[in-house]
Amino acid sequence: MPKGVGKVVAQNKKAYHDYFIEETYEAGIVLQGTEIKSIRAGKVNLKDAYARIQNGEAILFGMHVSPYEQGNIFNHDPLRTRKLLLHKREINKLLGETKEAGYALVPLKLYLKNGFCKVLVGLAKGKKNYDKREALKQKEAKREIERAFRDRQKM
Question: With contact defined as beta carbons under 8 Å apart, do 59 and 49 qualify?
Fold first, then answer.
């Protein structure tokens, strides 16, 4: 299966607005106890999440997984740090690239693939405000063109 194919549970749409995504990596994620049940129910938020390389491991910070309702004492901290499962060569490559100024690791999607929870992590470079405005203009122009084609097809 190609990257990003599966049942998408959560998406970080804000990441595409705030960053230029240069490369993407599919990573597994280490979960504990009832977290996977909560994720399957769609109770997860990637909005403020980011990843870092620490001690040779990729770690995901700020991903909010709501406590599972039937989990009682077995629930975990919703904002705990979670380890990402990547190959050593991918981690070393990301470590070198994130040391450059302006690069960050941003989770883009959380999805289920063959019963496993995967995270699509993007190597991202921050956009300036004028880049964001330009992207919005292009999006609006594309929408206008689509609308014109649709109206023309109706005639």
Answer: no
Contact 10, 117 (CB under 8 A): no
Dihedral sign of CA atoms 37, 77, 122, 29 in order: negative
Q: Provide the residue type at 118 as one letter.
A: K
Residue 38's contacts (CB-CB under 8 Å, 6 or more residues apart) are 44, 65, 66, 67, 68, 71
pTM of the model: 0.80
CA nearest 104: which of 18, 9, 6, 12? Answer: 18
Q: Which pLDDT tens digits describe the chain residue by residue (155 residues)?
A: 566 667 899 999 888 888 889 999 999 999 988 888 899 988 999 988 999 999 999 999 999 998 888 877 777 888 899 999 999 999 999 998 888 877 889 999 999 998 899 999 999 988 888 888 888 898 899 999 999 988 888 77
Q: What is the C-alpha separation between 114 and 120, in angstroms, rounded?
A: 15
